[in-house]
Amino acid sequence: MITHNAAVHIRDLRKTFDGKEYILNGLNLDIPKGKITCIIGFSGTGKSVLLKHILGLIRPTSGRLEVLGHDLWKMSLDELIKMRTRLGVLFQNAALFDDMTVMENVEFPLREHRKDMRPSQWAEIAARKLESVGLESKHFNKLPAELSGGMRKRVGLARALALDPEILLYDEPTTGLDPILTEVVDDLIASTHKNHAGSTSIVVSHDLFAAFRISDYIVMLNKGSVLLAGTPDVFHTSDNELIQKFLSKGLKQG
Amino acid sequence: MIEVWTRNRERVNEAIDGFFIRIGQNIYELFCDAGRGCIFFAESVRLAFKPPYRFEEIVRHMEFIGNKSVLIIAMTSVFTGLALSFQIYLGFNLVNATNLVGPTVGMGITRELGPVLTGLLVAARAGGAMAARLGTMRVSEQIDALEVMGVDPKQYLVAPRIIAAVVVVPLLCAIFDFIAMMGSHFLCINVLKLDQAVFWDKISLWLNPGDIYQGLIKAAVFGVTFAAVCTNRGFMASGGAKGVGEATNQGVVNSMVLIIILNFFMTNFIRFYYVAMGWK
User: Fold this and answer.
1) B chain contacts of residue A155, beta-carbon cutoff 8 Å
2) Secondary structure class of A71 (helix, strand, coil)
3) Which residues on A lie below 8 Å from B147 (Cβ)?
4) What pTM was computed for the model?
5) Looking at the predicted structure, is the pLDDT value of residue A254 above 80?
6) Domains and CATH numbers, chain A
7) Tens-place pLDDT, residues A198-243
8) Record: contact B141-A93, CB cut-off 8 A
9) Which residue, among B24, B65, B118, B3, has the nearest Cα to B227 in the 3D structure?
């Protein structure tokens, strides 16, 4: 049964790599459509593994996972490929193709999936996406190696936005960035979400301060399952000792 | 001694068990690895014949594997031709059979040295680069990025490289054969003062097109071998820069060993086939 307005619907999801230790252990979760959801938790609680499940990069050991109403592992390869065009991802280190220029990187998904368009249209869309994430045109023909960390994130985000995805996923978007750049990236996530009406944003992050600043919905994982899910207010009013400990340390650092 | 043996019997038994278990595990892993490699290869080849066809990528890799290897192939082949001719001349001179230097060098080059040395050189140069490139893409999440963009990474990254290697390595082998024979000609005619007419007459008498085809077929198989092994190693790399280094090293070493082993079996197989067909 899919919860109304759930972009991602997960029931009793389990994952083990060695057959002994479960990284995800009976995880139940509904990620609401059209909102910014932040997945937080201590290191090793399965946040990135969950993200890879949502992307269909990892097959669950057991349980059910539906993205936009579709079970990714019941799809044919062609259907899965089509489904993935509805998802956009900003990887931790942007994962830009280092032998392509900024423009070529952003054009790449269009070249692959919008063969009905002319090359000039690809370029036009790519330029528009790059401008929407605040990258100046003088950087368009540079290689990723010539860009700063923040610029690479912007290009990665523009590439993720190229096909106007329904779900945007961010894997630790602010890890390794200085506090000022962290705030810039957080604002970028919020503004991107605002500019893409109806899209769902899922942010996996350690940054509690950002999670409370930009999220509509927060999910805290612990030992492979959901400890608490709800609005930021629910977290503030929770009397769970672990949550309060996590919040007090995290917000102090933030 | 017996007392010591009795006292430590359990420990010795454990050590012996452990030794055999480790051997068994290594053999098991070797077969698993080979099986995974075969599935990876079969999957990549299947995807090569499935749209979208990546002609642009194939041409790009052909240029990388082929064009950029010509110089080292030329350098290696000329000196191989010179050295082989000289050694064979020294041997045949003892039995006064120097007029057979040309065809012997020709057969050695076209059947064996041409394809094997071409395969080894290209495996070291292009294969190493393939493993390193794909390994870097794996550890920097570029392969994951391709996958989540709805692009099959095996079809985009592996299949074009394998096709390019199959097409280009026989061409490089032909270049190797030609330049090595030119080197042989230069040494035999200009330095060793053998008769030019006899040199080429004996070559045309003893060297058959089948010898050249044999080398080209081998080269194509070696091309597939190193491309499949090196892309597989790179594709499966993990563990950052160290993992990429290990993947590159394993890719090149495994390809080279496989090329040498395959060469022996292919020589016998092709010989058997030619005899069965009554060609020679």
Assistant:
1) none
2) strand
3) 55, 57, 84
4) 0.84
5) no
6) 1-86+174-254 (3.40.50.300), 90-164 (no CATH)
7) 889 999 988 788 888 888 999 998 888 888 888 888 888 888 888 8
8) yes
9) B65
Q: Is A242 on the interface with B (CB under 8 A)?
A: no
Model confidence pLDDT, tens digit, residues B128-140: 999 999 999 999 9
Domain ranges of chain B: 22-276
Instruction: State the average pLDDT over residues B185-191.
Output: 94
Interface of B with A (CB under 8 A): 52, 136, 140-142, 144-145, 147-152
Of A105, A112, A177, nearest in space to A142 by CA: A105
